[in-house]
Amino acid sequence: MADERPVARTKHCELSLDQLAEIQPGLGRLMPEVSERFWILYYAAKEGNWGLAQYQLNGVRNLLRIGAITRPKMANYLNSFSQGHLSAVEKAIAARDLASFEQAYQKAVEGANAYHNATGHAEIEWKLPPDPPQHLELRPRQAKDTPNDSGQ
Ligand code: HEM
Fold first, then answer.
1. Residue 120 — left, alpha, or beta (φ > 0 → left; ψ -120 to 50 → alpha)?
2. DSSP 3-state assignment of 8?
3. Ligand 1: distance of its center to the CA of 112 in Å?
4. Confidence band of 1 (pLDDT split at 50, 70, 90)
5. What CATH number is attached to the domain comprising 65?
6. Residue 103 in this model has a pLDDT that exceeds 80
7. Total structural domains in the chain?
8. 34 in ligand 1 pocket by Cβ < 6 Å?
9. CB neighbour burial string for 7-33, b if at least 16 within 10 angstroms, e if fewer
10. Could you tell me if residue 39 is inside a domain?
11. Ligand 1 centroid vs 126 CA: distance in angstroms?
């Protein structure tokens, strides 16, 4: 009988579902992106670009959600970080309150490093890079920059 297991085809090869599952990113691949977004989030908030801060926070959440799927043993940790520390940061973003943002952010950094320790990665201690990212405008866009229909 012919093998009817589904395969995905690329121009290079055929991949089984198992192979596709195997190459989904684990935390080792997701965390550098979490780190980048979490860094940008801080400097966006500091410059008052709350929209960009929220956008980065959503990105971090999505990455953690993917991690919880591909690494289910870590799901409890990832979900409680998201619901606890990240929600506190999100609340400060919504309130546009820099003082409580700074506090919640600092606690989130400590929380993340406590999870690194708890998951057997005491060697990983994240710290906020001292410089803001250079590739994004961090200040909020002024209303005058928004294009209108007349092209003016
Ligand atoms: C915003 C919060 C977090 C940041 C900024 C962050 C940052 C990082 C960074 C930079 C790495 C090293 C990545 C590399 O270059 O290989 C890492 C690894 C790791 N993180 Fe996080 N992390 C965060 C939250 C968490 C949470 C909540 C957990 C809970 C499970 C976690 C678990 C891990 C694990 C297990 C690794 C090792 C991954 C591996 O190589 O298998 N992290 N993290």
1. left
2. strand
3. 7
4. low
5. 1.20.120.290
6. yes
7. 1
8. yes
9. eeeeeeeebeeeeeeeeeeebeebbee
10. yes
11. 8
Q: Does 58 sit in the ligand 1 pocket, CB within 6 Å?
A: no
> What residues contact 118, with CB distance under 8 A and at least 6 apart?
77
What HEC string does 89-113 produce? HHHHHHHCCHHHHHHHHHHHHHHHH
Average pLDDT over residues 127-134: 98
Domain that holds residue 31: 25-121
State the amino acid at position 74 in one-letter form: M
Q: Which of 43, 123, 124 has most ligand 1 atoms within 8 Å of its beta carbon, as the pocket-test mutant? A: 124
Q: Among 35-39, 112-116, 148-152, where is mean pLDDT lowest?
A: 148-152
Residue 82 domain-assigned?
yes
Q: Ligand 1 center to residue 45 CA distance, Å?
A: 22
Please check whether residue 13 lies inside any domain of the structure.
no
Any domain includes 140: no
